[in-house]
Each structure stands twice: as structure tokens, then as C-alpha cells.
Amino acid sequence: MIKIDQIKLSIDEDESKINSLVAKKLRVKENDIKSIKILKKSIDARKKPDIYFVFSIIAELQKDMEAKVLDKAKKDNNINHYNPKNYEMPAIDSKNLPKNPPIIIGAGPAGLFCAYILSLNHLNPIVFERGKMVDDRTSDILKFWETGVLNTSSNVQFGEGGAGTFSDGKLNTLVNDKLGRNKFVLETFVKFGAPSNILYDYKPHIGTDILKQVVSNMRKEIISLGGEFHFETQVDELVIEDGKVKGVKANGKTYLSDSIVLAIGHSARDTFKMLYDTGIHMEAKDFAVGFRIEHPQEMISRTMYDAAFSKLPPAPYKLATNLSNQRGVYSFCMCPGGFVVNSSSEENHLVVNGMSYSKRDSKNANSAIVVSVGAREFDKSNPLAGIEYQRTIEHKAFTLCEGKIPQQLYGDFKAKKLSSSYGGFSSETKGNVAFGMLSDIFSQDIYQSFIDGMGMFGAKIKGFDRDDAILSGVESRTSSPVRINRNESFQANVAGLFPCGEGAGYAGGITSAAMDGIKVAEAVVSHISL
Predict the structure, then answer these.
(1) pLDDT exceeding 70 applies to what percent of the chain?
(2) Which CATH number among 3.20.20.100, 3.40.50.12780, 3.10.450.50, 3.30.70.2700 corresponds to the domain 2-81?
């Protein structure tokens, strides 16, 4: 197999031309190519108005041709032998199966992929999830958005699929993937109902509507392989003997196991407290806070793609800067054609996030614009101090508008003035909204850092800092405020306890959390095999 990079098509050309372009690049006839497959597809809009789709292609040639073609092209860095990174499943001797199966706490992407790998190894994992199955969870979330009545165990943060299920379903990751775990994650999503284009799109996404079905199909497959799921079941105690985990207590019952995976997500604050009180080693970590910002999607797409915007999918963006005060300011979880959603999980506290459906067809683009926080905001010697800082600002956000999502136009935010109406466009939200003084939530230093960052972003994307851009607050759960320490065998200071995923501080997003779930499953298999 040969990998050919930098195959370009204008956005008006049909992909059927790829065959002839590959043949020309390899200097062979089209009928010398047995098959081609798209490995990556991206958009090159650096020289507007000339915009191209750029492909990496895998080509299979007729017998005995590959070596000759590669030899002729050895000076072309865009033509290389292709070595696929296929994930190698861990294996366990059937004679070593434990008396009590592994237990996984949490059914987000980390927990689900950990359970999937373990179930493929005939280990029949038991998954505990405090929230509900995804369909029932969806009903609770819709009710909350319509009425403001919150179910603290079944919401945007808690339930089957984790927090990522009600987001944009973005699947791009910066994790280095030498062993093919990322490829395996994407292939697994496709197996359970995701569109196949996520296998090659440069910035793949599924969308909430499709991701819900994928998650449900994964759960059904895990059960068919021997796994168990216990929904509406919160683990409230670990059973520990002689420095080793022996099981968990949940809903008044004890479940025994020598392997417990903590895939609890970044919002399981009561579970973090239980673990800390139990003596599990953890530490506070930096994260970022700020607001969701909305712009007309057409404005963003025109800026990115010029007049060709109508022929292309809604454009994303990614922005970041480091200020002289040592604060980082950056965009986070950008949702093209998305909605700002009320993502609260505690009574009298309010947090927002972004969400898109698979078509990304709302009128607005939204993203979190966040400022890094750490020792200047909370005592990092206390592992739970970051959580308390989050709670403080989330309570302020709740009280601003009596539980409705507080909003302020950016011009009024700078002037510290209450907004009274939208400007040139209106908000796309899930949940009730009202105007409030978001400018009063953070310290002056964070407030000014946000404004300084916005000014720099306005120089990069014309109109980004427009006065009628809509801010919604508060965005505070960009990543876990806690890291649960683990050693080289992925275990905590209690043997057999495996911190995992975003909540434990080892991932950031759906794909990296899923990949960490796979790594931990491998570690569990090794632990059981000893």
C-alpha cells in the first residue's frame, strides 16, 4: 500500500477525479490502481478565494508494482509506503479469569470503551452509572431546559454517554497515537452507527443526535458480550483491605472486585470528596473559566471561506493567546451551527456548554472563551479547592437571573452595563435566558484578561469582538479541577484502583477519554493476569 499526501481538489470538483490525480502523481495508469481509500480530508483556505479540499490517499496497486513506484518517487516526500496503525487487542488467558469481574464507575466515553475492551476479553465488566440510560436522560434534560426543574443525577453532566453526549460530538484529538487506539475508537463509533466520514475528516464530529444512538448501541453490544450495566446507581464507598481495593458499595449493596476503574467524569464532585476522605491521593490542577460567545455562523464562515462559504460546511475556528500577566486565553469546544445549553448538575448553581446536532444547522456559531486559573484563585495545596472555586462562580451565575442562563452583549460587558436587548442577531440556546451582569462574576484580573484576549481575537477574525456578540455564563468545566494520581501501572495508591479519563485528569474530550479508557482496560488485563 502507498500513501499519497497533498492531493488537492477545488471545492467545485468531484471526488471521482481523485483516481486520475493519484495515477498522475504515481506516474501509473488508472487501471494499475486496484483500489484507493481516503485516509484524511481537510480544507485549505489559506489563499482565499482559492480554496481546496486536501486529501491523503491510500492506494493499492497491481501486483509487483509498489516497489518500483516507490523507488521512482523516493525524492517525493508526499509519496510513502503505508504502514497502518492497527490496534492490537490485549489478551487474557481464559484460565486467569477472576472470580469477581472488574467494576467500572461511570458510563462516559472512558468507561464505555474500557468496558468494551474488557468485555471483548470475556471479563464481563459491571458498569455503575449514577444517571439514566440515554433515552430517559434525554427526557430529563429536555424537561430541565423547558421548566428549569433539575434532576441532579440525570442531566447534561450525568448519565449514559457522559457530558460529551450533549456537546458537539467532536472527535479530533491531539493525543499521539502510535498504537492505533484513536483509529480503533473511530472505527468503533462507525461500527455502532456513526457516519463513516469520521474516519478521514480532519475535524470529525458526530453530533448529539447520532452520538446518543451510538452510545446506546455500544451498551447493548457490551451486554451481549456478558457485561452488566446498573443505571441510577451511585457508588458511595470503596471497600479497601490491606491497601488493596476489594469492592464498592452502591445503593446499600456491596459488590466485590479486585479491579475498580474510576471513570467518574469531571463533575462528580461528591465522588471526589468521598475518594479524598478515603485517602486516595489526588491533587488540584489548573483549568480555565469564562463565557460562551455567540456570533452569526455566516459571519464566521465568510471570514474563513470568503465567498465559497455557502458551498462548504459551517466553519470552525480555534483561537489562543498568552498574555503578559501569564494568563492564557483561548477558545474551547467550538460548536459551528450550535446551541448554548444549560449544563447545570447541582441545585442553585449554573454552568453552560455548547452543543451541535449532526447537521450543525443553527444560525449561530458558539465557543467558550476562557481564561486560565490556578493558584491565584484557589489554594492548590487543597485537592478540592478548585471544585469550591467552580461552585462559587456557578452560584453567582445562578443568582444573577434566578436560575436562567445570564447573558450580556459584549459591548455592555466591557462597559459593565446591563443589556436590554439583542443587537443584529439573537441567541440560539437550550434553556431559559435573561440579561444579567456577567461582568460582575470574575475578579478584575480575569475580567480584563478576557477583554484583552477578545481584542486579539478580533484582530484575527474580523467582527469577533463586535459589541453585539452574545456572552452566556458561566463556562467553568473546561477540564477536571482534580487529578487522581496513578502510577506506571495506571493504579492509584490503593492497589487495584484505576483512575481513568477526563474526570481523573488524564484526558480532554470524547476521543482522548475513550483512548484512556482503552489504556486502562489494558492495564486491568495485565493486573488480572499477574
Answers:
(1) 100
(2) 3.30.70.2700
